[in-house]
Amino acid sequence: MPDECLRAKLIDAGYSRADIEITGKEELLNLFADFVVQTQIRSSVSEEETTAMDDNGPQQNSSERDLDREAFEFEKSKWADEMKKWEAEERRKDLELEQRRAELEERKAELEERRAERKLKEAELELKKNEAAKQDTSVGKNKIFSDAMRSSAIRMSNDPIKAIAFFMNVEQLFNVYKVPTDLQAF
Predict the structure, then answer these.
(1) Hey, how many other C-beta atoms are within 10 angstroms of the C-beta on 96?
(2) pLDDT value of residue 44
(3) Quick one: which of 20, 90, 120, 155 has the most CB atoms within 10 Å?
(4) Cβ contacts of residue 23 below 8 Å, gap of 6+?
């Protein structure tokens, strides 16, 4: 039986609400057991008064007390079994709650990981866009074409006859690399 039910029955029996609310499970069971015993004793005392007039009164009293004790012990064991069942159910619910919390934490971690991956991809994409934008600017194009021409063109020597071959090679490279006319000035 849940603690709340025990507390409600004990409060109905006349126990102080403040005392009952701070009392633990074991103490609640003991108080309830005392209450049940007292109520059974009161009822057996009133029965004793009625049976005292009979000839077999004392014998019935002891047998009734034994029966009352047995009934009390049975009720007490029944209450204890119900408390065990209730506690087991509470533990099961707590375990389920912990499992749900763990799953939620895992989902949060996965979500954070996905967000981090997405931010990384966005940063890489932005970097690529910036590089492409640099290449599209005249400074970027100038750098690309100058690197290509520098590595491909023949070296100009001090000999004036070789200067003609040098300029013909440069014009040919302009056509091969499709260098824009605004960058072809030399």
Answers:
(1) 10
(2) 60
(3) 20
(4) 7, 31
